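Data availability (excerpt). The following record was deposited with the supplementary files.
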Amino acid sequence: MPELPEVENLRLGLVRSIVGQKILEIKVNKPKLVSGKGTKRVASTQKVKEFIKGVENETFVELDRRAKNIIFKLSHNKILLSHLKMSGQFVYKSFNRKEKIITGGHPIELSEKELPNKHSHIIFKLEHGTLYYNDTRMFGYLLYYKNQKEFEKENHFKLYGIEPLSKEFTLKYLLESLKNKKGKIKIVLMDQKIVTGLGNIYADESLFEARIQPTRSPNSLTKIEITKLRKAIIRILKRAVKVGGSSVATYRLLDNTQGNYAREHKVYGKDGQLCINCETLLKKIKLGGRTTIFCKRCQK
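Predicted structure:
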């Protein structure tokens, strides 16, 4: 699943491509993708009708991001909320044949040859091109809200913590959030309730830079350790956003390029290699069902 830097770069790419364009026509091929956001969703014909009627003839005004979600702001204060989940993809194809087709999200080989295709579940015909939402496993979603009040009423982000690149992500906030927290720090960082957008890649990298073992209990961390952790999270995420994310596995940016931060990984994906600091063999374990790699000598 893409993490904060990858989703932020996708948002920026979509801003350049679709903001200011009017939505002329919409086709929804998989009703469940606009019917809810749970793992067990029931396709709703009524939701499809509301989606199409509410969104057609509106204009993309602005795009925001909250954690790993993209918020499409439309004219008349209407909103679309999107999450790519494991295998979602946006493809924008201009009507001008001279312009390059641009893709963001998880690459789907068929999309490079044929559009629309069997994975094209939601299609937006715009003034100057077509925006496709493709998804091989159909875990993602696009939800429609008729206004800001309705969007806020659902309180979609009620369990989310602070954005790590916001001014609210202070040392005081992190100290207070972790002081009574039990469990393992790696899992706590990934559960989105304290800090959002931090997944497996950047949790491993941040803990390595802060020299904190991922199995430590959050309430065992000292003020000095939490200070180092906060600084590591901010520095690494800022750097990853700047260079376009990591693009490990299959994630791609909207301009069809891969992010470059993977070249700077110190531990993630480096099982069996030596620590760059002390040349100890990096250790791999499972935490919360996810592979975790760390240095048992450097990280205490």
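Summary of structural features: The first helix runs from residue 4 to 18.
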